[in-house]
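Support request from a user on the community tier.

User writes: "When I paste my structure tokens into the form, the page sometimes reloads and wipes my input. The last time it worked, I copied everything first. Here is what I submitted, just in case something in the input itself triggers the reload:"
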């Protein structure tokens, strides 16, 4: 189970670091990529904030447990990313866009929260 959790954490971390990095460091490219259904209605500032949250969360999925420094932060990072995915799902539903990816990411975040357990 430990290996499966590490694989899930690594995949989630890579994805959140990539997409968060795009939101923070390549906003125009991200905006073009997501503007298929018109303007998202999300400001540049909010997009940057979400991107920073995803970057920190992606690092939090790996670093605390890997270094042994405050390992409680790993399930908390997964919990925070799960909240972001709930809000992203709501946003995409309102725009009548597919929500499959955000729901899958939410489930994977929940697996990490439960698997790593806040009390374990």
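"...and here is what came back when it finally went through:"
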């Amino acid at each position: 189970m430990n290996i499966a959790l590490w694989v899930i954490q690594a995949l989630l971390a890579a994805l959140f670091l990539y997409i968060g990095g795009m939101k923070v460091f390549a906003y125009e490219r991200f905006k073009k990529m997501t503007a298929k259904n018109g303007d998202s209605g999300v400001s540049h500032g909010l997009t940057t904030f979400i991107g920073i949250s995803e970057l920190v969360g992606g690092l939090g999925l790996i670093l605390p447990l890997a270094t042994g420094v405050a390992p409680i932060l790993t399930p908390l990072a997964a919990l925070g990313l799960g909240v972001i995915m709930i809000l992203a799902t709501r946003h995409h539903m309102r725009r009548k866009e597919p929500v499959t990816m955000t729901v899958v990411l939410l489930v994977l975040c929940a697996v990490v929260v439960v698997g790593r357990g806040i009390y374990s």
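Agent notes: The reload is a front-end session timeout and is unrelated to the input. Helices lie at 2-25, 27-34, 44-67, 73-94, 100-116. The mean pLDDT is 91. Escalated to web team.
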